[in-house]
Amino acid sequence: MTESLTQPRPETAGTGVVRPTTVAEAAQVLSGSTGSVLFRGGATQLDWAGRVPDPDLVVDTTDLSGVLTHNPGDMTASVRAGTTLIALQDQLAGAGQWLALDPPTASAGATVGGLLATGDSGPSRLRYGGIRDLVIGVTIVLADGTVARSGGHVIKNVAGYDLAKLVHGSLGSLALVAEVVVRLHPLPERSVTFTGDADAAQATAAALALAASPLEPAAVEWASAADAGRLLVRVDGTEASVDAAGRSLTELLAGLGVTLTALSAPDATSAWQAHAAAVVGSDDETVVRVAGLPSDLADLAGSAQDAARVADLRVVVVSSAALGMHTVRLSGGSPTGHAQALTQLRGRALERGASVLLRRRSPELDGLVEALGPPPSSADLLRRIKAEFDPTGRCAPGRFSPWF
Amino acid sequence: MEDRGTVTVLTPTDQPGPAPETPTHLSPPTAGAALADQLRAQLAPDRIITDLTRLRTYECDGITGYRVVPALVALPESTDEVALVVAACARAGVPYVARGAGTGLSGGALPVADGVVISLARMRRVLDVDLVNQRMTVEPGVTNSDITKAVAAHDLYFAPDPSSQTVCTIGGNIAENSGGAHCMKYGFTTNHVHAMTLVLPDASVVTVGGDGAEQVGPDLRGAVIGSEGTLAIATSVTVRLLRKPEAVRTLVADFASAEAAGEAVSGIIAAGIIPAAVEMLDALAIEACEAAVHAGYSLDTAAALVVELDGPTAECDEGFARVEEICLEAGATHLRFAADPDERMLIWKGRKAAFAAMGRISPDYFVQDGVIPRTRLGEVLARMQVMADDAGLRVANVFHAGDGNLHPLVLYDAAVPGESERGEHLSTAIAELCVEMGGSITGEHGVGTDKACSMPKMFSEDDLAVMKRLRAAFDPDGISNPGKIFPTPRLCGERPGPYRVHPLEAAGLIERM
Ligand SMILES: Cc1cc2nc3c(=O)[nH]c(=O)nc-3n(C[C@H](O)[C@H](O)[C@H](O)COP(=O)(O)OP(=O)(O)OC[C@H]3O[C@@H](n4cnc5c(N)ncnc54)[C@H](O)[C@@H]3O)c2cc1C
């Protein structure tokens, strides 16, 4: 934290940026300032949900970084929130371990704290769970500078409320995530990725068949393409077990008309990189995340395609098929077209009981369509939580507007 | 792997426990009578209990040392009825406590004097089974085992498996974030719940979580799970079901010392194997289990490990061969392999009967539940032995060794003057030793009434104050299970040595590891 930045002056026009290096400094920054504040990690997911217009202060966690502990024998590690996932994985790999998380924004520098605040995950969630399942302790700093910790350094622990769950998905609206303790997994001895052409209906059938089988794949992903689409299935295990699992799942999916082939290691790496990029999308696109029942994949992909067709847009759907999580990317056309397609898709998805989160859109869309859909039954409760944690409403104002 | 009918854990003592914290808005007993009349008019009269004899059934949970008779017990049969009872309590300013099967081991379901107990025992319906998407929606009074039973024919099961599973309810599992022997690989209740319908303390009904694996906004589902009935009452729960693993392999390995057994566990972890379960029993625990269940554990060994691997057959077999080698390298004196599902069940029956079996070797005992970083097991066992010797008491040990969750059982005889006090002190000191070792005062039984006074050992005042902000958002008037989790001067008095952050720790230079 540089001298000039330790004293944020929210009264002056424009946004001040502070980069605390410790939890205590972060607390000092927040207790010693007023005005709206945006917490920023790797800045890879800042556009999710409602926009935060011109915050008075940005608390950037870039320098609040570093692995604090790594206990290989206990399979736990603690990090300052601004530690990038990549940096953490590098350090853990030396001990043959990893934080079993592969979000699409990892390569762009997503931080562990930012990932907890967004709740983002990647293909491996199928086998290892999402970040909410992997975080065992957290330190947060509230808007008034109060520092609080919950959980701890042990995997099993039910003492006190789990504040990590509360900040999970809060997108910086409740508190700054300052430190995170995670449980680790052994790096698999071997991973093999299989690929095969499949349309949405086949992908749905394949995902459900794999879930009903005892094969325990690590990831089952699907992406639409001009010619229907493509499945990516990964198996983690030992030298021998991966081969056995590969044979069984190839046979299983052949029965559904999907022909799988194993990718070489370099081909698998580039296939997964391309897949992650397809989830992230680009600035001029509208990116919507839809999560519903796995059996609804074909229906939701169809809805996305219908919505795009009506508005004359291009559409790509990328799915964590067995988890029922889909990223819909709309491009081309006009802002009104995007707004119209988003409204139609959101309506259809909510009808099916799915959740919908707007992840990216161009600023021109802002006046045309609400960032959030209708409020959930818990909106009142969320408002009360917000009032308790951030009574002056300074953390990311607008993020969940109009819910809270 | 069931231990039917063995849920009474502690021998009842006639000593009353510490008085529970009474909320400041304590209502006169007449408020209870008025409330009973009002609820009888709204619910069927036979679902409101005020008769003292019947009320006594609800005066405690699995920790029978704490007893409080409530003013009345309500037995709602639907979400609407739960909301109706909560609304009546809220209007009258009368506190209430939700109750499942009452098997909790931290006094979580302990009634509040002059308060209401809302028993979910009559809400036992399965509301929806979705085999394709592997989930099921049930009412809160459905037992843990009944969830699995309903879908076992389809090769599905509910993973959290507390030893009390044939009796305890999913509502209680939610409230305690219960685990079991298999949580090292499969996690706890929180990892297996998609959505819940909740009745909040203002009687409003909300849904948290949902069909999708991701929800927009804070994870309220996760915040409520493990909150011990202090934030909301769950009236329906959608659980995630898992496909039964293709293969399961189980062995029991005997060791000449607990340290050697601990070394084997470390070796298994270091080999990159994540067992479905690793349980350790010491000689005293084995003696008790064998007396109760005859599961075939060796009586002449210092410690035994139960190691179970599951998963795809190839992976499981390969890992199992490695586990066998590692156990032998660590000095295992005897290996027993479960030859078939029946033998495996018997091994588990022995392990799961451990708490109840203590009655065979001691008139009374306290069940402790602490967690340590697994790598400090040897150190902790040695310290515990010294502490037990100092107190002149025996401690039997059964634990989930894979995740460092210890269940020391402090044996005592209430008939001997002073022993129960010494036992209680020793048990508390052991839980607090776990914190000193970088662990937790509770891994699965919860804080409840029993450990509220130990919370300051683990959390700072600010930590607790912020947790209370969450409580205030859900329950501003503090009527939902008051007196649990958080220490109060009345319950705890002045206790020495509260949690203090070491200056180096504050600077981020050391960790409590
Ligand atoms: C022999 C024995 C073995 C055990 N083994 C294990 C074990 O291996 N692992 C483990 O984790 N636990 C274990 N336990 C502890 C206990 O069984 C669990 O905590 C269980 O989840 C409690 O369920 P219950 O239905 O009995 O809840 P209760 O004891 O009735 O209540 C427990 C808490 O849940 C709250 N509650 C109940 N229902 C609801 C609801 N619908 N909504 C909100 N709050 C609610 C109550 O207010 C209370 O705070 C064991 C207990 C015994 C007696």
CATH topology of the largest domain in chain B: Vanillyl-alcohol Oxidase, Chain A, domain 3
Biggest interface, chains and residues, is: A-B, 100 and 98 residues
Portion in strands of chain B: 15-25%
Number of strands of chain A: 18
Domain count of chain B: 3
| CATH hierarchy, class of the largest domain in chain B | Alpha Beta
Q: Report the helical percentage of chain A.
A: 25-40%
CATH architecture of the largest domain in chain B: 3-Layer(aba) Sandwich
Short précis:
The complex is a heterodimer of chains A (404) and B (513). Chain A is α+β, with helices and mostly antiparallel strands and 404 residues long. Chain A is 32% helix and 24% strand.
Name some characteristics of this structure.
heterodimer, A: 8-stranded antiparallel sheet, 13 helices, disordered N terminus, B: 513 residues, alpha+beta, Uridine Diphospho-n-acetylenolpyruvylglucosamine Reductase, domain 3, Vanillyl-alcohol Oxidase, Chain A, domain 3, 8-stranded antiparallel sheet, 18 helices, 19% strand, globular, disordered C terminus, binds flavin-adenine dinucleotide
Describe the structure.
The complex is a heterodimer of chains A (404) and B (513). Chain A has 404 residues and is an alpha+beta fold. Chain A has helices at 3-6, 23-31, 85-93, 112-118, 125-128, 131-134, 163-167, 200-212, 239-254, 265-280, 297-310, 335-351, 379-389; strands at 16-18, 37-40, 57-60, 67-71, 76-80, 97-98, 135-141, 147-151, 176-183, 185-186, 190-197, 219-225, 228-237, 261-262, 286-291, 314-320, 325-331, 355-360. In chain A, the strands form 4 sheets. Chain A has an 8-stranded antiparallel β-sheet with strand order 14-11-13-12-16-17-15-18, sandwiched between helices. Chain A has a 5-stranded antiparallel β-sheet with strand order 4-5-9-7-8. In chain A, helix 8 (200-212) runs antiparallel to helix 11 (297-310). The longest helix of chain A is centred in the C-terminal third of the chain and has 17 residues, at 335-351. The longest helix of chain B is centred in the last third of the chain and has 18 residues, at 419-436. Chain B folds into 3 domains: 1-121 and 453-513, 2-Layer Sandwich (Uridine Diphospho-n-acetylenolpyruvylglucosamine Reductase, domain 2); 126-243, 2-Layer Sandwich (Uridine Diphospho-n-acetylenolpyruvylglucosamine Reductase, domain 3); 247-436, FAD-linked oxidases, C-terminal domain (Vanillyl-alcohol Oxidase, Chain A, domain 3, 3-Layer(aba) Sandwich), CATH 3.40.462.10. Chain B has helices at 29-42, 52-55, 79-92, 144-151, 170-176, 183-186, 220-224, 258-270, 283-293, 313-329, 341-352, 354-357, 377-391, 419-436, 455-458, 461-474, 489-492, 503-506, and strands spanning 48-49, 72-74, 96-99, 116-119, 126-130, 135-138, 156-157, 193-199, 205-209, 233-240, 242-243, 247-255, 277-282, 303-311, 334-337, 364-367, 370-371, 394-400, 405-412. Chain B is of the alpha+beta class. Chain B is globular. Classes of the chains: A alpha+beta (404), B alpha+beta (513). At the A-B interface, strand 4, strand 5, strand 8, helix 7 and strand 10 of A face strand 9, helix 7, helix 8, helix 10 and helix 16 of B. The complex binds flavin-adenine dinucleotide. The site of flavin-adenine dinucleotide (FAD) has 40 residues of chain B, from strand 3, helix 5, strand 10 and helix 12. Residues 7, 9, 61-62, 97-105, 108-109, 120, 140, 162-164, 168-169, 171-176, 178-180, 228-229, 233-234, 355-356, 444-445, 481 of chain B line the site of flavin-adenine dinucleotide.
